[in-house]
User: Fold Antitoxin from Sulfurimicrobium lacus.
Amino acid sequence: MRLVNIHEAKTQLSKLLEQVQAGEDVVIAKAGAPIVRLIPYAPPKRRIAPPGAMEGEGRIADDFDAPIDELFNCLKDHAA
Assistant:
């Protein structure tokens, strides 16, 4: 692990980033006390739920596919 002070981090940022990218641990300190650790960026892993994972979580009304007369009448009125 490499410990660097804030001033060195400011002046050597590109070099420090290369070291982090190469796998080296770099910690930035203020007055000798560690305050931050630089780590390489890793995109978040996309979690894909297995088929059926949401089974029983939703509810469909019994009249879900029943015609909505008000909607049809409204559409007829505006089409004319």
Q: What stands out?
A: The mean pLDDT is 90. The radius of gyration is 30 Å.
